[in-house]
Design goal:
- The structure holds two protein chains of two kinds.
- Mean pLDDT of chain A is about 95; it is low at about 1-10.
- Chain A is of the alpha+beta class.
- Chain A has helices spanning about 35-40, 95-105, 120-125, 135, 165-170, 205-215, 280-295, 305-310, 340-350, 390-405, 425, 430-440, 450-455, and strands at about 15, 25-30, 50, 70, 80, 85-90, 110, 145-150, 155-160, 180-185, 185-190, 195-200, 220-225, 235-245, 295-305, 325-335, 360-365, 380-385, 410.
- The two termini of chain A are about 35 Å apart.
- Chain B is an alpha/beta fold.
- Chain B contains nine helices and seven strands, in the order βαβαβαβααβαβαβαα.
- Chain B has a seven-stranded parallel sheet with strand order 3-2-1-4-5-6-7, sandwiched between helices.
- Chain B is globular, with a radius of gyration of 17 Å.
- The chains are: A alpha+beta, B alpha/beta.
- The interface of A and B includes residues 11, 19, 67 and 420 of A.
Chain lengths: ~450, ~250
């Protein structure tokens, strides 16, 4: 092993989540081989270490104040592809973007993608991400057959789906160890285009009944809500649902190369944006426009994968538009049967006038086995709010109370502010998780700001 | 850890009986703060302060700390940091002294300077180094508007705060990029036991108002906080008033 095995980039660097709140400093290490990763874990020191992918978790899950942060993007090899069976074995640092580039031409698609392609496979498992197809396909880890996990004692375990260690690792926020590689099961597709149906819903009740009645007809389903709309149009929304377009739906010319993947990209957001650019006025105007521009009803529209799944990836560093103070992303889920609680929460957000231009409602399917996996069968709403909004902390605390009371939970990959006392009520298997960690990693080698903040 | 809005979960107060500090602690305990260390000279007042914060639900511990005993700072404060991370250190000790007496008794004046400047410098450095090792945390230093421009009425106190203020600004710059945030708080005349019986200055404020300003400053990651905010404008004007005129102003 070379002397620069742990490739420490001194001095410590400031690290924050995608929401850019509460940055802390850490020693950044970028292993490029499994051996280097092992050496990096051994050299973590008293304040431990945490693996980090592309930094898309909104909160403090992949930062570790005063300790080590293992930048896993150097471990980015696709090891093997079984184009017959539809599986890929790849390093944890490979991004979903890269997988799409490589797999789409072969007629395969990633089983689950969130609103960005720029997440790594390791991060996707650690946060047990979900996508617009959760009601059909569940979360990401459901499609992971096995993974290689580097644990605190420096050994590598092959962990198979269905075992306790797998279920602790799926959604375990990197705290069981460093995922080195994974075997992912893929989805066959005929084309790289999406067939999309769009419709508008006049208000929240209209939206919820439309989703309930027709969600199961679509593989992918999501609704964008205008949370600034009040009164009769509270909860008005645009539904976009769809599936991978079959070959025969493509125009004749496009059928010649149905599997091309060419996402476009706009210029990046500027490095400096003045605070308070996104207020009620600007976001309100945007929302009005966005709602009006959506077709009242349109079906079978062909869209690129990037347009349908990842509109924000088109603007690199879009998180900068919130200015220096950053923003908080709030995503919660409440179980079916708690529709009144959901309505009450949406009502409160709307009354409060949170300037959120990214508010997304969808229905989750069956829950996932990961002990700290977020999805529960029910409704989930995600919104982002500038951190500068006065009184935002106490306001979100109030929403948490309502969520817990309804038997729901907030998403740890997006959290940056939950009151630790509420966590056990949200995640019933928290004690199992803590016990497994205590046994697997008694010295607490793996830790993060999230873990410290919530005593995970 | 601090949350997204800069609210700390653990707090160390240097000067554990300070009214401003306790108002701040109460405010933070109502939000996220669960662990509070109150450092100060052992006294019934310190224990009462701890008890009151416990009643609000915080886990409170006291630690014997003497600003003047700078030799002991490293060890005393080191023990506190050894117990776990501290998200925020509030440096709130300081004495006003008695201008009239202190002018006559240089040793009394030295005590003001040693407490407010030397003691604070020592304690801040010890804490800053520990926070730096943690890679995160806020050091909030209570300065005073009195340090902004020396006044006839309290220039001994004022000069000690001026020294502390300049030191804290420099420390903030030195720690930039280390994850440690230094915030200088400059309150005007605060109605408290320190100023009881004194003639109130214009724009007088309360410990609660200072506490609120501190919470907002943490959220914004501010480097300087004036309480009330209008003082920033007033003082920037006063700073440029000629001495001959300033001397005669009723401030």
């Amino acid at each position: 092993m070379s002397a620069d095995a742990t490739r420490s980039l001194d001095p410590p660097v400031s690290v924050s989540g995608w929401g850019r709140t509460a940055p802390t400093t850490a020693r950044l290490v970028r292993p490029r081989t499994y051996d280097e990763a092992r050496a990096a874990v051994r050299a973590c020191g008293a304040r431990g270490g945490i693996a980090r992918g592309l930094g898309r978790a909104y909160g403090d899950a992949a930062q570790n104040a005063g300790g080590a942060v293992l930048d896993m993007t150097g471990l980015d090899r696709i090891r093997s592809i079984d184009a017959e069976a539809g599986t890929v074995v790849c390093d944890a640092g490979v991004s979903l973007h890269r997988l799409m580039e490589v797999l789409l031409p072969l007629g395969w698609f990633v089983p689950v993608t969130p609103g960005t392609r720029y997440v790594t496979v390791g991060g996707a498992i650690g946060a047990d991400i979900h996508g617009k197809n959760h009601h059909v396909s569940g979360a990401f880890s459901r499609h992971v057959a096995a993974l290689d996990l580097l644990t605190a004692d420096g050994t590598v375990h092959t962990v198979e789906r269905g075992t306790p260690l797998f279920e602790a690792t799926a959604g375990g926020m990197g705290l069981t160890g460093v995922i080195l590689s994974a075997t992912v099961e893929l989805l066959p597709v005929q084309t790289s285009l999406m067939s999309v149906d769009t419709e508008r819903a006049a208000d929240l009740d209209d939206l919820m009944s439309r989703l309930t009645a027709t969600d199961h007809h679509y593989r992918y389903s999501v609704a964008w809500i205008d949370l600034l709309a009040r009164g009769a149009s509270m909860g008005r929304a645009v539904l976009t649902r769809g599936d991978h377009a079959p070959l025969e739906q493509l125009p004749t010319r496009a059928r010649r190369s149905p599997l091309t993947f060419r996402p476009g990209q706009l210029p990046a957001a500027p490095a400096f944006v003045p605070e308070g650019l996104l207020g009620k006025l600007t976001v309100g105007a945007f929302n009005e426009l966005w709602f009006r521009k959506a077709p009242r009803a349109r079906s079978g529209q062909l869209q690129k994968i990037s347009t349908f799944f990842h509109p924000l990836d088109g603007v690199p560093h879009w998180n900068r538009i919130y200015g220096r103070s950053g923003f908080a992303q709030y995503q919660f889920a409440v179980p079916y049967g708690q529709e009144d609680a959901l309505r009450a929460i949406v009502h409160r957000i709307s009354e409060r006038g949170c300037p959120s231009f990214l508010a997304v409602l969808k229905r989750f399917g069956e829950g996932d086995p990961g002990w700290l996996s977020f999805p529960v069968p029910g409704w989930t709403l995600a919104l982002d709010i500038p951190a500068t909004m006065p009184g935002l902390g106490p306001f979100l605390d109030e929403l948490d109370e309502a969520v817990v009371e309804a038997g729901g939970r907030v998403y740890l990959a997006k959290d940056s502010r939950l009151r630790p006392e509420l966590l056990a009520g949200m995640y019933p298997r928290l004690d199992d998780f803590r016990a497994l960690r205590a046994e697997l990693d008694p010295a607490g080698v793996f830790t993060s700001d999230l873990a410290r903040r919530l005593a995970l | 850890m601090k949350d997204a809005f800069g609210t700390p979960q653990s707090l160390l107060v240097l000067g554990g009986t300070s009214e401003i500090a306790l108002a701040t602690a109460r405010r933070l305990v109502a939000r996220r703060t669960r662990t509070v260390w109150l450092a100060g000279r052992p006294s019934p007042a310190l224990e009462t302060a701890a008890e009151q914060l416990r009643d609000l639900g915080a886990d409170v511990r006291t630690v014997a700390f003497d600003a003047l005993d700078t030799e002991s700072h490293e060890e005393t404060l080191g023990k506190v940091f050894a117990e776990g991370d501290l998200d925020m250190v509030l440096l709130a000790f300081g004495i006003l002294g008695d201008q009239q007496r202190d002018e006559d008794e240089p040793l009394a004046a030295v005590r003001v300077a040693q407490t407010n400047y030397t003691g604070a410098l020592s304690a801040s450095l010890v804490c800053a180094n520990a926070l730096k090792r943690q890679g995160h945390g806020s050091l909030v230093v209570l300065s005073s508007v009195a340090g902004e421009r020396a006044r006839r009425a309290n220039f001994i106190y004022g000069s000690s705060k001026a020294g502390l203020d300049a030191f804290a600004q420099g420390l903030g710059d030195a720690l930039h990029g280390t994850g440690v945030h230094v915030m200088v708080v400059r309150p005007g005349f605060v109605r408290s036991k320190m100023t009881a019986g004194m003639k109130e200055a214009p724009l007088a404020t309360t410990p609660e108002a200072v506490a609120e300003a501190i919470e907002t400053g943490l959220r914004r990651r501010s480097e300087t906080v004036w309480v009330p905010g209008a003082l920033r404008v007033v003082m920037s004007a006063l700073r440029h008033v000629p001495r001959s005129v300033f001397r005669r102003l009723p401030v």
